[in-house]
Records
---
Amino acid sequence: MLKKEEYKKLFREIIRIINKKGFYGDVLLIDSSNLSINRDFTTVDISNTGEKGVKIRVFDEKSWFETFATDLSKSNLIKITQNLVKNLEPRKGIKFDDEPIEKSFADRPRINPKKIPITEKIAVVERTISYLKKQKHLKNARVVYEEDSEFKIFCSKNRYLTQKISMVSITCFAIVQDKKGQTRYRYQVCFEPGFEATKNSLKVARMAADESKKLIYAKKLKPGKYHCILDPEVTGLLAHESFGHGMESDTVYKDRALAKQWKGKRIAADFVNIIDDPSFPNKHGSYYFDDEGQIAKPTYLVKNGVVNDYITEMLTAKKLGVKRTANGRCESFDHKIYARMSNTFFAEGDNDIKDMFKKIKDGIYLMRGGGGMEDPKGWGVQIQGLFARRIKNGKLVDEYYDDVGITGYLPEILGNIKQVSKQFDIKDTGHCGKGHKEWVRVSTGGSYLRIDNLNLA
Amino acid sequence: MKKEIIKRLEKEKLDFWKLEVAEIEMKNIYFEKDEEESYISGKRTDYLVTVYKKIGEKIGEASVTIKEKSEINEKIKEVIAAAKLIKNPYYTPFEKYSNYPKLKKAKELPSYEEIKKKVREAYDEIKKTDAKLNALEVFTKKSKINVTTSIGQELSEEHNSAYAECVVTVKGKRGEMEYVPMRSESNLNQIDLRSFVKNCYINAKDISNSTSPRMFRGKVILSGDALAEFIVPTIHENPIIIHSSAKMKYLNISKLELGKNFEKIKADKITMKSNPLIEGGLRNSAFDSNLVPARELDIIKDGVFTNFFASKRYADYLKIKPTGPLGNIELGTGKISADEFYKDGVCEIVGFSSFAPNIYSGDFTAEIRLGYYIKDGKKTPFKGGMLVGNYFKLMANVVLSKEKFFKSGYYGPKAIMFNDAVISGL
């Protein structure tokens, strides 16, 4: 195993080989690990998996040529770099330039999970499942402790960056049988950079168990239009799936995004702001620099109700002539880098959530993230798997609905946002695909929204 | 590195251990508009060790990835310590089996030039139309899986796979619209890129001339991408397959009971089987991760739940035979032609945005990327709205076509028709 300084020397040498032929090039090392303890009522599984590899890219002023390897010996990495550039000649086209930066970043979790013995991690999971076992209404339950670490080195002619990210989550699934004999579940998650995430494990278990009781009597919602309050997990999904994907520069470049026609135009009331922010501290979608060495900063996708900046990676930002943002991300060293979201959310508004509920005579409170799929060209909205509760005369009543979906035309939905809450919460963990592949970690959350005439099914 | 890991594992007093080595080679090409955007090629090797420790009547088990030679000792020490802390009900991880099916050796990956030529041909195909091929991604992969266990078994198998995804946009009455299909098969020759993009063009054209759906309740046909996605969803298995797993039964989650109908049957009695041994099948394999040999397995036969698919662990827990790996999903065909489905007042769905049912309850809401109303023998396209329902209930009231079709691990009727389905309109 090479030491940190040896990597630096080796990666600089690789860049010299690439630069010598007149190309821009970069090297990305990814070393990731995931410790998972997965417990149900009868069994427990434990695994510590991960990967370590290097991506080497060369840009011939038109296209990227890339290779990757898990054999990180100096001889192999030099050989594959030489092979990569061997038959390439620079073509006149796009040139990349970057400001020199050399910096190291690292998360500082309150309780470093690496210093906690495995016995203590298992004990947390056992305590949590014991609580859930006592809940008589549950058919089964699952407690998942996950501890992720991600170490990256980025090296180009002008940049040498390292980052170390730490993530711990505890997720509780409560599984019940409803009155019709169908199996249903709810889950709750607590996420923090360190082992401090586990302090709330019993609270998270209680919330999942309590909510799952409601599923037993939950009904199917009659399809139709409803006045709604959306909780932060659902608004996060709306910001991400329905809007954010259409603001990815590669999607725009491929003429896949209706957002191109809306750029600079009003799509919502002026109190509506949607932000993508990888620099938001300690969230599941956070990082210090992207996989192309761009330092993380927030991007306003919608600013004061107007469609604003795209999120970008290097190449399509150049091709479109737009600002480079820190959103070039890949699933792994053997995957391509695309423009991807990070922490994407509706920013805080001025309203108190209690007042927002008061405005609804008869409506639906949509909660808990499900899933969704992008439709950047048609701006059709698909969000499914939500849990919902009836609102009557401004108050939540004991009428619950499971597996509710949102559909409709995005500009119409955003145009119907009537209020944004000042209460704000990003707590959930998630993974986002480009279509059905290229998974990267993201978060969901943000503010509550009040939206009129939302199409639910 | 493999030899060193085995040598280290053999030194330990373990009840069982397993080493899985995956060697993967890839060549991927990415086109944006008419330009080659990226080409990625390379090789990776991954090592996964699982150790088992018997503790009284219980068994402890833990897995670890070994990334580099220098960490072999440390990681094996860690994983053994972790396994000793686990007390699961006992099962026998490995037994000796014979009669493993033989899979064909994987072929060498096509060259960069060969893949690029096929991509160019696809672009030429689209140039004949009024559409734009805005992106085309073609991936090819060759993998070799080698598994060694503590009971002296060592098995290997090789696979090829190929993946294509394209974006075609075209202008119509509704403005410029897109269709974005994907296809996974066991090799690139099974994906004719020219017809792949041509079919995509036809669908994109219909979307560009589509209307918005109204609320509908009645007969709904599934065909093409929507049908393959419904039976073999991209993210999870379909709810019938999920409920037929021995693990789900053991966890008290499965609603299926052996020898009983999977749901109250109202139309064709479906037959659904797992087949990991189809000639050229995408989801073929000769053995599962406990080295249980692959075989065909009837899961639902004529509407009746016939077999759990079971890994060694959950088979032992339920005292049934392990079934080997889950493979391609075959749905039995019906007796009538798909042409007979297309009658007045029927809807057809050919593409979902995404089909992600609740795997426990089977409930789902799936947005429709492209569908058709059928009236006076004419098909009128629509886009949007959702097919809403319950997987079990819909599959219990379905008619199956006699013609066959395969796509991305699905083998079955060319079209199926739900007798009573709901589309929520806009």
---
Amino acid sequence: MSSIPTTEKDILSKREYVGISAINGPLMYIKNTHSIGYQELVECIDKDGNVRLGNVLDTSKDVVVVQLFESTTGLNLPQTRVKFKGQPLMLGVSETMLGRVFDGLGRPTDGGADIIATKELNVNGLAMNPASRLYPKNFIQTGISSIDGMNTLIRGQKLPIFSGNGMPHERLAAQIARQAKITGGDGTEEFCVVFAAMGVKSDVAQYFTKTFEESGVLSNVALFLSLADDPSVERTITPRVALTLAEHLAFDCDKHVLVIMIDMANYCESLREISTMRSEIPSRKGYPGYLYSDLAELYERAGMLKGRKGSITQIPILTMPNDDISHPIPDLTGYITEGQIVFERTLHAQGVYPPIASLSSLSRLMKDGIGEGLTRADHPHLSAQLFAAYSYVKEVRNLASVIGEDELTDLDKDYMAFGESFEKEFIAQSFTEDRTITETLALGWKLLSLLPKEELTRLTEEEIEEYYGK
Amino acid sequence: MERLIGRVSRVTGPVVYISDVSDAMMMELVHVGRDRIIGEVVKLDGSTAVIQVYESSVGLSPGDEVFGEGMPLSVELAPGLIGSIYDGIQRPLQALEAASGAFMDRGISAPAVSYEKEWSFTPSIEEGVEVIAGMILGEVPETSSVIHHIMVPLQIRGKATVLSIKPAGQYKISTVIAIIQDEQGQQHELTMVQRWSIRQPRPVERRLPLEVPLITGQRVIDTLFPLAKGGAVALPGPFGAGKTMTQHAVAKWCDADIIVYIGCGERGNEMTDVLNEFPHLIDPRTGKSLMERTILIANTSNMPVSAREASVYTGVTIAEYYRDMGYHVAIMADSTSRWAEAMRELSGRMEEMPAEEGFPAYLPTRIAAFYERAGMMQNLNHTQGSVTIIGAVSPPGGDFSEPVTQHTKRFVRAFWALDRSLAYARHFPSVSWIDSYSEYSPDLEPWWHEKMGEDFTKNRNIMVDLLLREEKLQQVVKLVGPDALPESQQFILEVCTMFKNAFLQQSAFDTVDQYSTLEKQAKMMYLLVLYWNNGRQAIRKGVHLSSIRQLEAVRALVRMKLTIANDQLALFDTMEQELIQAITKLEARNE
């Protein structure tokens, strides 16, 4: 790692320093040390012998800045001992971690046996070589029409849910985790879920545990929980730990891993907190300038690799502060991820579940994952037509709110009827309803048949001939 | 040449401070620590210096040695570039995969082009000839559609005499193919490979005016907002508006000879998409695979941020090299905002005083310098070539008033603004006809007149005018509904809707529609203007709009983009006859 010879480094890494120069929030400053590596793991032992972990954020000859993943409460300057480990934070991974519950740093909290690791991995991971990636195009059927039909999820994709406080993103995530399946697979695929909770309330975590339990998948789920009352710095590590396990399961154990990360907004808050504490120059809304790169390090760990069977599909969930999609967190996320599922509060207020805003939601990988041989030949045109029609509905509604519904042309009234049914029948479905892709497409055609044929400009004559009004 | 230039004194992210600096040069290429991480000197101050490293700095510690290479960060230029995929500092990703597997380890390197492969070289000059920098010594068929001209390196000053040159034959790029003697009497052994610093534009004889359009086959671009060869355009849009889709479409179908596609801080899967798709697509002009004219630079968002900063320069330098051979090169930079953010991140780590939104004060200078590397040039060897830059901009929150969009606007002359509401309605390419502009339009007018006749610009202006009138009418419609307008005005709305659906909107996935020749574009526009003129007349004669709308010949217009291929233009004439007859019949029935 550094130019210090390994033996010398070993000796140094056993060296402990007693006494630190300053503590500020989660940051500790230690002076006059040996050469410390950037991002090295640090063990900090308080006067009672409790061990806390941290890593090196800034290293120089004079002073080393350490960020503790845990609370600094109770540490004092003279008696605290610090040990530099000579390597970055590693996670011992193993397939047996499925079915277990861990804290935000990957230590078991369910009272079970310790994990016997098959491999030690750096939690920061390494960037995938773009030339080694396999382009994702296997359709995942979630059983939810507005996703399958309009914003198809693809194996190896990163598709976040942009929600707001009080909206049912947890239910949707749980429903996807329960229903997701691949049509046309050879049946040997193994699925598992890695769940990372960052700063969520403990009852939300319990909700997920309970849902996984009820649907009998708990033994295939690894939960990493950094709850709301855990130290905020821990949250910056939790998704990295979870993704490290996911990479092991996907690329060493040939599993298809669905990673659910909730709530990315809390993760970003923690980053901002640390950045501010270090008096870094902020960019928008006080978030650090490297927020984009930092988020990309997480999201880009989704994907598939040539020659490996497994895959990592990510569903990060974030609550948009004040439902504002242009806020830096959803904004930067949207620039990195391959689309987004956006929740709409007005739909939610009308009792539509899942309240997925059809127009602002998008799946970028959909284009190559649907159509003939994948879902059905008419799927691309059908979804384009539904989008176009529903987008016109929005215009008509605006108009109707000014001139009144009665004044609309007959055609516009047809569109109003279409819009109504689209929301009530296509988007809305119950928590337990699992629709096949054929059912979803049939439903789409049923709704389009409310409009005159001439309006369906995105569909070919043959498709209209085959499905319209049937 | 490698020498110790100092030792690490502080590490913070990709910025490394070094002390005890001896003779380090600005922008010198360096290797740091035992892993020999690549970096570049960005600041010198007495005995200390600042280095930005192009790989993860995890594990670097104070005291680590820093070695200087004695030269700035450069690219290797030789046959074999085309069809390759590189990271931001020209490391070949396919070779790195072979070396370290699917994940990018640190400190690995490989030559940018193969030193083993033999190329068939044919000299184009003889011994005893006088040459200057940039002159063509010989040629190598690099791919089936690109002839690679081997040129005298630009580092050679003044005139030189060719002492010897290899006869036609198979050579590796490291073979000495010519020996030349310069005016000072110094001899230079020339191989097929040369180096050029990425941050320095390659010199040219002079700039030429921009008079020829870059034909993209995308109707909204070619007709409404054309781009000149050698021009620069910004392509801003919020996420999901279709920047990458538009960039891909232009990269696939534009009539440049070489495409340099820079994925700067974007998604890994998008680059994989290009890698998978391009080899199977056929260039409509050469009939060869698109990959045979494409070079990819992929520095995805999770790869080191300083290499992202370098990636656009690496791309533009390679582009200039091919321009020097007399080619027209188009660069897709996706996205320049990520490049600007990389600058911001590095600047912040160096604790520089920020200007707007944390960006460094030199942001506009850097943006200007980058876009100025575009141009139609008279090269040193008297060939003419061009570099066209199509730079995507990703404004935070889709707000075009942010610094990167605003500064970019100052240095480009065309602006293809992508509109989120069009994208939401799945109207692609979502280029807004209200916010976009092209200052190249008037410069290109003589070309259009000569090649496409006067009707093309005339029809185009009619459509632009109608779109503007529609925009105003829509304000009224929002208040009172379309039925309150007289039929003549409703017809404007109708024609514009038709123009948007039948012409501006273009499917990137439909094999017929994805690329339109200028002839097809002209015919389509002609028919739409015909519909406007004849329909308007009919309405004046009392024909109802609804009966015009329902005509079979009118409905056929909407689908003409899909039903008539580029080589079936005669079908447009049939369509024209049917349209004229159908409307005349309506008028007759009304009389």
---
Amino acid sequence: MELQRSKTSHYFLRACILLGFAMLIVYLAKTDRLVYYIAPHMQNYVKYSSVLLYVIAIYQIYLGINSVWGKKAEPTCDCAHPTSPSRFKNTVAYSLFIIPLCLGFLLPSTAMSSSLADKKGMNLSTNTAAKNINKQLAAAGQTDNSATLTAATTSAAASPAPAPTPTPAATPTPKTNTAATPPTDEQLKEMFKAPDEFNEDFAKMGMILYKRDLITVKPEIYMEILSTIDLFKEHFIGKKIELTGFVYREQDLRSDQFIVGRFAVSCCSADASPYGVLTEFATANHFAKDTWVKVTGTIENGNYNGNDIFTIHATKVDQIPTPKTPYVYPNFDPIPELKKQ
Amino acid sequence: MPISLFRWSRTILLTAGALFLAYVFLQNNLPLAAVWESSALQTFKTMFISIILEAIPFILVGVVLSSILQIFVTEQMIQRMIPRNPLLGILFACLLGIIFPVCECGMIPVVRRLIQKGMPVYVAITFILTGPIINPVVYAATYMAFRTHPDLVYARMGLAFLVAASIGLILHKTVTKSPLKRSSTSFHVIGSSHTHTHTHDHNHDHHHHGNKISSMLSHAAEEFFEMGKFLMFGAMLTALIQTFVVRESLVTIGDGAIISHLFMLGFAYILSLCSTSDAFVASSFLNTFSKGSLLTFMVVGPMLDFKSTLMLLTVFKKKFVFVLSLLIAILTIAGSMIIEHLYF
């Protein structure tokens, strides 16, 4: 009888935990918070699993009710994992499930912020990252250029990588290229010559972006646009740019500087890497860290910690509410998205 | 000895985890007070929940599939299909996981029964090693986690195949006596209550279809909790590391050639993640560790980890488990270093 009772409580406790996870997923999905944890292309799988969790939970309740009435429960198959008689071990095992549920329901969901960027190391040169991966891919005989934009990088901050050098084929253009007569398509092709086959998409994007008066860094192709600018930096000096992100600071930044950052996520938040652009603005120190801002300014040449990077000389910085989708995701087909504008 | 080990497994696991964390904290001179800093707690929560949510669909698919197979496919059906030729047998065992995708935890009791019913030891061990890696569920999970590095997905499958096949061959040549423990105590009695007496026979009570589905559902719940607790613990440990350890301090480990492989091997052993979810944990270290050491992590993890060692010890002789572990470690590290050198 004693054993029967302990079995009953196991069934109900398990049902509660399973329902808890199902409810947590539904709750996060309903309040649009799932995006803080899971990349959009994975979210449907997570939503479907809440249904399955629910079904399994209901069956546990059914078994529990059966055992309350003393009915012999369904004969479990002989591969069943027996429950442990030790109260201590059971407590430990079940609390491992209950802790994340408590955290999930009780603490507010927030987007990843500066404190994590500190730990992961902010990447200021997307191109260095892309190049490293290209090299690895080239070595592996990969021709899939979609992989160029992975969020992964051997931390540029940790090992000062060689600055991205301008391609030898590129002709130096005058700095005031906004005033110059628009170049012909032939000249454009010469200017935006991909250094290797992995960067061809960037070269095409460069040609489209170059014709624009204002480069809006859309969140949908955030990494792709920043990589393009970084790769063909010398052609974009003086161009107007607009981007959004959260304010991030490193110790050795001047008071008129901050970094506009975004987390790039490929599957779930655990694989996020922070990317950012160094921004100069006279009253930069008025913006607290993790404030979401929209920065408008011109692209300039800069140098940070020995790396040649592009920076933004901001003319306007507006505080904005945290966007619904705070993270950016690699886009494997960026050009249609770019043309949509 | 193994029985008491198994009984203490969670305590040992927790202690090992705590020691590892203590080491990490001391390494970085982190003030423990920082744990309660709200932004750190927030980060920890985000990491913890996101790893769990990401893994839940895969663990559910694994649990449900394995329940279906446990209940609908009898061992006799599988046994009939094993080829007599040792090379073919090993090849068969390597590919068995494709149609019989069981996680490493569900695997060992099944395999023991298969050995008792006459499956050659080398085939069985090859299946234990590859089953949790070379199967569609794990392939999908790894592919999702490393969408931007498909080469790593193929390398994982390939290396697992090579390591398991070589171990299968070595065992075929060397093992003559049964490595099973003689009076191997019934698996279910170990560390268990006495409520479950598994005298139930598969073949006579499962005729009703509804009955099968309901026993599948209850089996799925059992397995979800059995696997889940290791996942939760692993996710918690990973989230803590991600929250408090500065990446650059890990990079110093990640840089050393053999050291990083050994570190990842130990890491996989301690974390004892399920093979359906370990790829996501591995991909979160993509920025920090070399791809070769991540390969070590993903190949060793499912073959050899804390919980599976404990389970192996309850079935096989100590010496056999020790030699097997050593073989796995050496072959995997050597293999992933060669692959790293040639391809990454």
---
Amino acid sequence: MPRADVVVIGAGLAGLSCAAELAERGASVFLAAKGMATTHWTHGGLDVAAPVGASTARDGVRRLAAIPTHPYRWLAPDVESAVDGHLRRAAAEGLEHGGSLDAPLVPIPTAIGSLRPASILPAAQAAALEPWNGHGLVLVGFRRYRDAWAQYAARNLASGAWPDGPTEVTAAEVDLPGTDDLHNVNAQTLARLFDEPAWRERALRAIAGALPAGSARVGLPAVLGLTSHAEVLADAERILGRRVFEIPSLPPSVPGMRLFDALRRRILAAAGRIQIGFDVVSVEREGARISAVHTEAASRTLRLAADAFVLATGGIAGAGIRAHPDGGLTERVFGLPVSAPPRDQWFSDDPLEPHPLEAAEVEVDAELRPAGVDNGWVIGSALPGMHCLDQRCGDGVALASAHRAARSLAGSRAAAA
Amino acid sequence: MTFHDAAARAFPPFSTDACIKCNVCTTVCPVSRVTDEFPGPKYVGPQAQRFRGPSVADDSPDHSVDLCSGCGICTRACPAGVLIAETNNRARAAMVTQRGSSLRNRLISDTDLLARLGVPLAPLANIGLRNPVARWVGEKVLGVHRRGPLAPFARRTFRSWWKQRGGATTLASAGDPSKTVVYFHGCAVNGFEPDLGRDAVEILERNGYSVIVPRQECCGLPFISNGLYDQARRKAARNLASLAEFARAGYRIVGTSTSCTHALKAEYREMLDLSGADATAVADATWDMCELLLDLHDRGELDARFGPMVEPLPYHPPCQLKSHGIGTPAMDLFALVPGLRAFDSDHDCCGAAGTYGLKVERWQIAQDVGAPLFAKVRASGAVRAACDSETCRWQIESSTGVPTVHPITILAESYRRADAAAEEPWRRVG
């Protein structure tokens, strides 16, 4: 295998984004991952920062940066250019976004009828960010699709507080053409049906027929196409004659699949290489430098030699960190030290409170370099000090850390040259 | 640690306990993408596995597992390390043991038998393969789709050429293991594409290697894919008996089919449970030919004097190659050829999956799976395409009309051009 400038390990938002930026900057990049990552499970929007009380994502970043352990204490200055770069890359692959760091964080509806704050979303979800100004909302469900229940979500939204929300929330159930004959109706089977122009036309007419009169916006399950997504969205607004937005539901996440694919294409277009399916199983070192990693293979391992290595393997939920029965924790690729509470403190009474093990992460310096490895960087949710679920900062930290590592690497390459 | 060690840690069906039901495998499955009849790897794998008993005699709760084409993409996509494709292949084999197999499946899996019958009758047999009436009869009687990609038989086997050439076949006649390799030609080179075998030998010899072609049979992969494990084990046992002594003596075993070499490296152990010392020795010694040439190049030992090939070349890395975990060595080698504009098809699967695309009830699925690839190859305007596995080449060629060759064929031609230019400088181009 020819030597690469950089090996990025991990194929989540952080790894993909870092590999794309490095490849765009002219580095030869090899992205290695043991499998697909969280893009396919998540909502496809950008959670940059939305701690309680934040008015915008930028304000959220400022608040989180004030927490002495939070990665934003170092990464805050990188957030703006990281998000800009990401949105530019996504747009270049046909995935436009709405909103910005300075747009107000507004409550948007989820598939179960709760609200979550958001300010940057893919175009297909962005109509949920617009002020409601007297409009109602009609949630559409599809009869054979069991992963999103419009009536249930509408009831929950109607009975809860939605500040400055729609005038009313109703539900409509639609029989999509031909779905009675299908064995499998999930988000991606529907998305692929919407990719077909003729079926899409009939389906959208059926949806239009089920809508109440008026100007209520339409919330649809996030299934509006994969390969022809932009056309599907345009057709939906044209045929339904009103603002339409997608609401992501259970995995597989169609918006996440679109995001993964856009970044994957970006990396390949910049001559980067991707191999998914093979875990890193050993590391070659020369003193404090990593000279190569080896990935598992059908017989002998594949040796990936590089000047630099970026760890984007995730935290404990993404399996970048392994917990052992004796209470020990290890970072799975380089065996980096992991800070963690003792075993008897691994329990929490409230499932929605920050979990003690979220604190189990790899220690790095301000340049995201782990101790004891001269040519390694750590990015994404393996970074210590954040509680992504309630701070809603996972995507922002992923992008900002990826950008910081790419800048830092580009700087050290320039210095070496 | 290799993939095999992961399999050894947990018998593949046990790995399904790690499934977190995230559905990532379903999003990448090329078959469930095009047919509603196949619910996807998760449903027929980790989900159904809970209802499968330990004995092959236990009824399977889910017969749709037979729609799995065996591409293996699900296993590679799984974030939790579940051996999905391997589990599903075993489930199919259990079903075949219990319910029996069709004459068609037993016949199209027995590629050695087909070559033994077809090669001596090649001119006539090939007329039959091209004849619409004969193909219609084949479809009605046997269930081989009339448009299924069948390659013409060679007029002469690779082995008969090798014998006539006086090529080495035994350990006794083998030279220094560091400069001698064993060539595993497999059934396709022997009975259908002997020119590829000659190109491989030419390239190996040019790079200073002596070649030995010991006794061998089809690797058995077509039987494995059709759930016919007993027949596959017989093929595997004979291959291991012949190859193991070379492996133990330090010879590398090189193949030009990424399907055969993956069977030797992985499937004998992961599917057929051949975990003995012979299987391990052969697996450790086996190399895909492009993998070997790239390794030589990394060591500075490859003759890199390639002649110019000024053409665009769509390259499709086959699923079996991707299961090797060796990157795409052909692309790295193409980069050494002046003028060659090779590009990765960036499409998951051609659909053929060995014998899958031949079957009358699977042909349309296989065509639909490969359709975006065919469109890219046609749109490229290239006069030919490249791919490392034979049935994928035949599928791409028959579905696009664009001749599709092994990367080794391209490299051999490039070397010949370099030679021609060296002898006749006025021919130098590019």
